[in-house]
């Protein structure tokens, strides 16, 4: 498995999927997964995207096969952004398209705002509001749950809203198993900081073509709620899919991958 040594405390695991024509020089897409996931979360996107682009899907710091983080690690969006920029530097990729799901979309917004010359386009799928307000009480409850019961009960209890009422039961079990592979220490430290990160000030700084996708009954906000922050990204587009999941990148994987491909080809092909 390929790893990139990001710093003294992090070996980042990543996957490369490239089924483009070998005689063509094709652009790169960087996929950023959400909380308690890994690069495996993008399995259904790869067939659609990798025929046209070189796809890089890393395991975020602390997750998947990347180095776990201790419970007292001081998490920040800027550190996560720095990790992914360091990875792309090591892969000698100066510019790339960016896709973020759930909290991966929060990281993506900070990355696109901080490195506008490097991001060719951005797609955000099932991404929380730019400012979620005070989550301190929820954070305490979440971490108490993880300390006492691990991840499984939380993942199981949240899965109906996460994947929606139409998702097959075998698929639900697969996603619960994926999330339960997350190291508890990483999860506790991550939840103290990243879900409550405020990226409102980043939105006007985003200059790349941007597509935002969600479902009509998402627990993270309905169309008017999403449009409040999406409209602050100049020239961005909002597409609402049918359904009641909030993890649309998982529940509507084929449709989202197809829409992402068409968006990039329409907005970024000269």
Structural commentary:
This protein is α/β, with parallel strands linked by helices and 270 residues long. The chain has one domain: Rossmann fold (3-Layer(aba) Sandwich). 39% of the residues lie in helices and 17% in strands. It has helices at 46-49, 77-90, 103-114, 136-149, 152-163, 169-180, 184-193, 223-230, 248-251, 253-268, and strands spanning 3-7, 10-17, 28-32, 54-58, 96-101, 119-125, 210-215, 237-241. It has an eight-stranded mixed sheet with strand order 1-2-4-3-5-6-7-8, with helices on both faces. Strand 1 (3-7) and strand 2 form a beta hairpin. Helix 2 (77-90) crosses helix 3, helix 4 (136-149) packs antiparallel against helix 7 (184-193) and helix 5 packs across helix 6 (169-180).
- Helix content percent band: 25-40%
CATH class, named Alpha Beta
- Sheet-strand content, in percent, reads 15-25%
Q: Write down the Rg.
A: 17 Å
Q: Into how many domains do the coordinates divide?
A: 1
The CATH topology is given as Rossmann fold
Give the count of helical stretches.
10
Span between N and C termini?
35 Å
The strand line-up of the biggest sheet is 1-2-4-3-5-6-7-8
Order of helices and strands: EEEHEHEHEHHHHEHEHH
Helix/strand class: alpha/beta
């Amino acid at each position: 498995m390929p790893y990139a040594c990001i710093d003294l405390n992090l070996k980042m695991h990543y996957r490369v999927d490239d089924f483009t024509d070998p005689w063509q020089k094709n652009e790169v897409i960087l996929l950023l997964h959400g909380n308690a996931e890994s690069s495996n979360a993008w399995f259904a996107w790869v067939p659609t995207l990798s025929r046209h682009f070189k796809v890089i899907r890393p395991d975020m710091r602390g997750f998947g096969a990347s180095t776990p983080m201790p419970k007292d690690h001081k998490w920040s969006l800027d550190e996560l952004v720095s990790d992914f920029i360091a990875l792309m530097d090591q892969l000698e990729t100066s510019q790339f398209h960016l896709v973020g799901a759930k909290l991966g979309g929060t990281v993506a917004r900070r990355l696109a705002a901080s490195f506008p010359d490097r991001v060719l386009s951005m797609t955000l799928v099932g991404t929380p509001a730019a400012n979620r307000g005070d989550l301190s009480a929820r954070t305490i409850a979440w971490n108490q749950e993880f300390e006492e019961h691990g991840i499984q009960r939380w993942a199981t209890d949240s899965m109906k809203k996460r994947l929606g009422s139409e998702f097959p039961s075998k698929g639900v079990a697969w996603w619960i198993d994926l999330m339960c592979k997350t190291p508890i220490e990483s999860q506790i430290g991550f939840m103290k900081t990243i879900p409550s990160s405020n990226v409102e000030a980043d939105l006007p700084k985003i200059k790349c073509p941007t597509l935002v996708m969600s479902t009509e009954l998402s627990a993270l906000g309905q169309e008017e709620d999403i449009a409040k922050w999406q409209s602050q990204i100049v020239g961005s587009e909002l597409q609402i899919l049918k359904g009641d999941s909030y993890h649309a990148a998982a529940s509507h994987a084929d449709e989202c991958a197809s829409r992402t491909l068409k968006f990039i080809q329409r907005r970024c092909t000269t």
